[in-house]
Every structure is written in C-alpha cells, then in structure tokens.
Target: Autophagy-related protein
Amino acid sequence: MKQIRAFKEEFTYEERVEESREIVAKYPDRVPVVVERFARCDLPDMEKRKYLVPRDMSVGQFIHILGARLHLSPGKALFVFVKNTLPQTGRLSFLLTSILHRPRNIWTL
Model:
C-alpha cells in the first residue's frame, strides 16, 4: 500500500492558509475539509481528501457520503473524528465553524 503523506506534512501552514482563504472567498456557504484515513485502518485509500462541505450538513450526512465514496459493505463501520473527538452525528456543520476559527486548524480535521 502506497504511503500517503499527511496534509499538514505536505503543505506548509502558509500554503494551507492561502488556499483556505481563496476557497472561503469563492464558496462562502461551504467549509473546506480535509479527510484522512487513519494509518492503521483497513479501509481502501480515498480518491480525494479535500471536500467543500455545506455549512448546514450534519456529521451523519457527511459520513454517509464518505461511506458511499469508499463503497463500504453494509457490515463495515466508518467513524469520523474531529480533533480526536467523535462528534454527534446529528450536529449541524459538525463543529466546523468553531474549528475554522482556530488558525492552526485550517483545512484539517
């Protein structure tokens, strides 16, 4: 399996800030999100890791989209962690607005 570098390792803080500002200016109703697979899981590699998530989308809706993109079998579980925390699936915009107000977290979950 090919080793993929973490987004924070691949791009400098300044590069992430610049890209985030451009994206937010162009799509103010969406939140830029980077999704990375946990290194020790057996999920297939994802085709893409950057998503523009509508601000009103719930965690459950986003997990459903990710599961569909990964073609998960019905018995396979998918968990999303935000800063080492498992957010409530019904929570709107899965804490993204508050996370984005912390400068060091630009483009990362």
Observations:
- The two ends are 23 Å apart (CA to CA).
